[in-house]
Specification:
The protein is mainly alpha-helical and 77 residues long. It contains one helix and no strands. The mean pLDDT is 96.
């Protein structure tokens, strides 16, 4: 009886360890994918910041040009 109990306990412990290892592997896989997504999001944020800055610069340039055109119109008229 004790031998069977020990054998069953060993089998259960091995299965438990295997389950824990599987859970750990899944956790590591998910964390790795989350890190990849976070890195991509950071890259997208940086690109968005660059594009927004360029947009602001372009708008400022357009406003400056419009003001110059208005000044030239006033001088001509």
């Amino acid at each position: 009886y004790e031998e069977k109990k020990r054998a069953i306990t060993d089998i259960l412990n091995k299965e438990k360890k295997k389950a824990y290892d599987d859970i750990e592997n899944i956790k590591n896989y998910v964390l790795k994918n989350i890190n990849i997504i976070n890195e991509k999001n950071e890259g997208i944020r940086k690109q968005t910041d660059i594009l927004n800055n360029e947009r602001k610069q372009n708008l400022t340039c357009i406003i400056d040009l419009e003001n110059k055109i208005e000044n030239i119109k006033r001088i001509i008229m």
